[in-house]
Amino acid sequence: MKISDIYRDKKLVFSCEVFPPGPEVEIEQILKTIKELKTTSPDFVSVTYGAGGGTKSRTIEIASKIKKLYKMEPLMHLSCIETKKEDINKILNEISQNGIENILALRGDTPGDRDLKTIISDFSYASDLVCYIKSHWNDFCLGVAGYPEVHPEAYSMEKDIKNLKKKIEAGASFIISQLFFKNDFFYRYLDIIRKTGINVPVSAGIMPVFRAKLLNKMIKLSRATVPSELIAIVDKFRDKDKDMEKAGIEYAVNQIRDLTDNGVDGVHLYTMNSASLAKKISSYSGLR
Ligand SMILES: Cc1cc2nc3c(=O)[nH]c(=O)nc-3n(C[C@H](O)[C@H](O)[C@H](O)COP(=O)(O)OP(=O)(O)OC[C@H]3O[C@@H](n4cnc5c(N)ncnc54)[C@H](O)[C@@H]3O)c2cc1C
């Protein structure tokens, strides 16, 4: 099923994200997590694509199993950095044979933060990938990434949103947001993009801070602003894992409740491959 149809039919779309484990970990481990995630009835499950395509075969395998084995709708992330059109053709051929209909089209980042100027690729931006897929494979439904606190490379919010609009005009049908810890950033973003004439559904990306040491990693990845309230929680429970998990879940649940009260199109939960976390959050927040 196309994810655009899910957004059309449902008032609130709940989705989960998983990432492929490293090669040293058996694939069965993530499959077990996905089987458990099914109990939360997500509308779709997205699978990340390692920086520079590092997890390509596992991403395809996991997304295919989500569809065939667990009968849920997969959203496969696909980045185009340092990628040739032939590589994209091969991947799209393979995933279409596996029944995957939905792709999150990304530019991606390079492994090890290499200088972008030194990278040779057939695609400069995610909008080029959207355009390429739409003109050669019109049967895929495409989503793209959005940044409530502005993409780190963008000159300004205004320019970033102009670039977001290019992705939508090229044929993307929905947006999934970068994680944020303060809902006001998301509401302000939504307000600007709607005024810019972008009318596709936008899911809010929520990542629970369930371990104190995760916070720095999350900030480095997303550059999200951390409100003083969350800093205080992390400081208080830094050495108390159980209490930190409880407080982190509560923080995420409060964010989600406020988002759903404000009528968001969807909530996309970055599960960190923890089904138990997803179960607690989806149930306490009333998503499921
Ligand atoms: C929901 C979500 C999921 C993600 N999943 C993954 C994943 O699985 N694998 C992975 O490697 N990374 C992932 N990322 C990270 C993402 O790849 C990085 O943030 C990357 O730096 C940008 O990718 P993009 O698709 O947003 O790029 P783009 O939309 O191409 O934007 C990149 C930058 O270029 C600018 N820009 C865009 N078009 C133009 C233009 N025509 N002219 C000038 N400037 C332009 C934008 O304003 C922005 O600053 C994800 C991010 C999000 C929010």
Describe the protein:
This protein is about 45% helix and about 15% strand. The chain is built from eleven helices and eight strands. Strand 1 (about 15-20), helix 2 and strand 2 form a beta-alpha-beta unit. The protein is globular. The chain binds flavin-adenine dinucleotide (FAD).
Order of helices and strands: HEHEHEHEHEHEHEHHHEH
* Ligand set: flavin-adenine dinucleotide
Distance between the termini: 21 Å
- Enumerate the spans where pLDDT stays under 50 for 5 or more consecutive residues: none
Primary descriptors:
11 helices, binds flavin-adenine dinucleotide, single chain, 288 residues, 8-stranded parallel barrel, alpha/beta
Question: Helix and strand layout, with pairings?
Answer:
Elements: H1 3-9, E1 13-18, H2 27-37, E2 44-47, H3 56-68, E3 74-79, H4 85-97, E4 102-106, H5 126-136, E5 141-146, H6 157-169, E6 174-179, H7 183-195, E7 202-206, H8 214-222, H9 228-237, H10 241-261, E8 266-270, H11 275-284
Parallel strand pairs: 1-2, 1-8, 2-3, 3-4, 4-5, 5-6, 6-7, 7-8
Helix pairs in contact: 2-3, 2-11, 5-6, 9-10, 10-11
The chain binds flavin-adenine dinucleotide (FAD).
